Amino acid sequence: MPLYECVFIARQDISASQMEGLVKQFSDIVEANEGRIAKSEMWGLRNLAYRIKKNRKGHYALLNIEAPAATVHEMERNMRINEDVLRYLTVRVEELEEGPSAVLQSRHSRDDRGGRGGRGGRDRDRGGDRDRGGDRGGDRDRGGDRGGDRGGDRESRRRDQDSGGRRESRASASAGEATEKETQS
């Protein structure tokens, strides 16, 4: 019989017992249609990478399934109908993974590390006697542009603008004289 792994995400506002009920419901569908659930895991409430139907978190579950394709299609049809299921993904695999999945293994390895103790002195009070880089006063030049004019001398720019304006008016005046001479001839 073909082997499948199915991961589905349920809404964040259902309880853990409701999530267990969903896993049981989908397991019953598989078993009623000549299949069997080799393993089921509850990964718990996890953050989503992006919002799905206004949810930022979701309850994750994994089902390892040994069943014909028609059974998996029926289970997926029920997942589409169920309003609590946000997303699901079923993948056919060559063999089912024994033991806990990678998600549960990483969670357990984090638990083994312990709390925040033993950070080599970095866990002490932040006030300490360490110099953190000086005052926050305004007398220090932080570099960069803080708005205002974008470099250069204001006076020289004003002179350039003023003279440019006069040059433009002189140029337009001489062009106007040229057009008058052409009309007279």
If you had to describe this structure to a student in words, what would you say it looks like?
- With 185 residues, the protein is an alpha+beta fold.
- It has a domain at 3-99: Ribosomal protein S6/Translation elongation factor EF1B (Alpha-Beta Plaits, 2-Layer Sandwich), CATH 3.30.70.60.
- The protein contains four helices and four strands; from the N terminus they run βαββαβαα.
- It has helices at 16-32, 69-81, 102-112, 154-184; strands at 3-11, 36-52, 55-66, 85-93.
- A four-stranded antiparallel sheet has the order 2-3-1-4, covered by helices on one side.
- The radius of gyration is 36 Å and the shape is elongated.
- The model has no long low-confidence stretch (mean pLDDT 78).
Key attributes of the depicted protein:
about 25% strand, Alpha-Beta Plaits, alpha+beta, about 180 residues, four-stranded antiparallel sheet, elongated
Give the helix/strand layout.
Layout: E1 3-11, H1 16-32, E2 36-52, E3 55-66, H2 69-81, E4 85-93, H3 102-112, H4 154-184
Antiparallel strand pairs: 1-3, 1-4, 2-3
Short summary of the structure?
This protein has 185 residues and is an alpha+beta fold. The protein has four helices and four strands, in the order βαββαβαα. The chain has a four-stranded antiparallel sheet, with helices on one face.
Work out the helix count. 4
Note the gap between the termini.
102 Å
Per DSSP E runs of 2 or more residues, the count of β-strands stands at 4
Instruction: Give the DSSP E fraction (strand runs of 2 or more residues).
Output: 25-35%
Whole-number radius of gyration?
Answer: 36 Å
Give start-end ranges of low-pLDDT stretches. none
Find the CATH superfamily of the domain at 3-99: Ribosomal protein S6/Translation elongation factor EF1B
- CATH-defined architecture of the domain at 3-99: 2-Layer Sandwich
